[in-house]
Each structure stands twice: as C-alpha cells, then as structure tokens.
TrEMBL record:
A Pfam family hit: adh_short_C2
Entries under SUPFAM superfamilies matching the protein: NAD(P)-binding Rossmann-fold domains
UniProt organism field: Thermomicrobium roseum
Protein name: SDR family oxidoreductase
Family from the record: Belongs to the short-chain dehydrogenases/reductases (SDR) family.
C-alpha cells in the first residue's frame, strides 16, 4: 500500500493571486494556506502591499512558508514581473492559481458603465492571460505545471445576481482555460477551472445580513453554502501529481446548483 500523502505538494512553488486580506479576505487566503499546508512554498499576491502582508503575517504565524509579492495583475508589465520575481526568488514556479477577480455588481447591460465593463475584463480575463502566458514559458522548460483558474458557476449557468460583466468575463475565462489546456498538454502542464457556487467566505459573511445568506442557501439543493476550505481542497488536488491526467476541465463546486432543472436562474428566482 502506498503511504504517500494525497495531494503532497512538497518541493513545489505556488503563486496565488487575489490572496490578500488574511482572515478578512475571500477564497484566496484559504487557498494559499491549504497549498502551504500541503507542502508548497507559496507566493502571496494582491494589489497592495498592506493587503498582501496581512495574509503573509497570518500564515507565517502558522509556521507556513509564504512570501508576499504585491502587484496589479491587470497590468501586463506588472503581471510579467510578478511571475519573474517569484521564479527568481524560489528558482521555479509549479502552480499558478488565478484567483484575483472583479466581483459582480448585479447590474444589467443597460446599467453597466464603460469603466465597470473594462475593469471586469482587465481583472477576470486579461490578468489570467498575462500570468498564464508568463508562467507557461517557464513551466514548458521544466515539463511540469499546474494552472488553476477560479471562474464561477456563472460560466455555465447564468446568474441574475452577479450581473452581465461578471458573467461574461467568467465565461470567457472558462473558454480560455479549455483552449490553453490543449496548447500545453504535451508539455506536462495541466490547465483547469473551478466553478464555485455560493461559498460563504469571511468577507461575505461580514457584508451580508444573516437573513440574506439563509435565503440564498435555501435555493441550493445541498441546503447550505459551501465553505472556503472545500474550494481550497479541490484546488490542492488539481495542483497535485495525482491530477496529472485532468486538464481542460471545468469543475463545479456548488452543492448541485448547476444541475437544477432550469439552471441557476430558476434557483435564484426565488431569492430575487
């Protein structure tokens, strides 16, 4: 019997974007913590040094091997420099988790401003492209790599809650994932997307009233919200060597919302 630990990331280096804020943040800090606990050395990225450092300090207090790399990943030059800085610091980059995102405003097409539309494209589509392009150049030479794009269930089931800019860009990220997977499969690089549904992050719990959380959770077939740890566990598996033959996939983690007859719009209609 093989006694090797499942999802052992020892000897690997991971870059997680949108991972700032520590316990005040969203999925990013939890993903970073999970990868570090699995043995990876983790580069923490967010747009500001203060937000980045919040996660670094919390995870170092847990004895985890992490380092901060603040940068605006929607800027192509900063995105490229970020990847090169991580490689220069650690000597390699094995795992890229594109978590940074522009959140949905819920606005309809006739309400969305040009700035909101451009911002959603910049963060949700352009940034993963810039970072993946830089990472692939390095991963290809090592014949190993893991790129995990955090999309959303909205990519396959339209969400009336998130709004048009968010839905359109998350679906674009899904398409980018599939195409890039084909391009790099022969080089030992896997590219996958995860599609979280209603996940109760600390940030969301602090912003939403309990009544609203309970009402939305009731529209989920599992009758509850997902947890950040559940999402992070999926990321860790896709980052591991056990997932070597999984690529081009888009995996829902949504308590069965994506298979509700009529899709997510029907499920959310009771909420809105």
């Amino acid at each position: 019997m093989n006694s090797q630990r499942l999802c052992d990331l020892s000897g690997m280096v991971a870059l997680v974007t949108g991972a700032g804020g520590g316990s005040r943040g969203g999925l990013g800090p939890v993903i970073a913590r999970t990868l570090a606990r699995a043995g990876a050395r983790v580069a923490i990225n967010d747009r500001t040094a203060e937000w980045t450092q919040a996660t670094v300090e919390e995870l170092r207090q847990l004895g985890l091997d992490v380092e901060g790399f603040p940068a605006d990943v929607a800027d192509p030059e900063q995105a490229d420099r970020l990847v090169q800085s991580v490689i220069a610091r650690f000597g390699q980059l094995d795992i890229l988790v594109n978590k940074a995102e522009a959140h949905g405003s819920g606005r309809r097409s006739d309400q969305v401003t040009d700035d909101e539309w451009e911002h959603a494209l910049a963060v949700n589509v352009h940034a993963p492209f810039y970072l993946s392009r830089a990472a692939v150049r390095h991963m290809r030479t090592r014949r190993f790599g893991r790129i995990i794009n955090v999309s959303n269930i909205s990519a396959i089931r339209t969400s009336v809650l998130n709004g048009v800019a968010y839905v359109a860009t998350k679906e674009a990220l899904y398409g980018f994932t599939r195409h890039l997977a084909i391009e790099v499969a022969q080089h030992g690089i896997t590219v996958n997307a995860i599609l979280p549904g209603f996940i109760l992050t600390p940030k969301l719990a602090g912003e939403w009233p309990e009544e609203r959380i309970e009402k939305l959770a009731a529209t989920v077939p599992a009758l509850r919200a997902g947890t950040p740890d559940e999402v992070a566990a999926l990321v860790a598996f896709l980052a591991s060597r056990e997932a070597d033959y999984i690529t081009g996939a888009a995996i829902p983690i949504d308590g069965a919302v994506s298979v509700v007859p009529g899709g997510r719009v029907a499920a959310e209609s009771a909420f809105v």
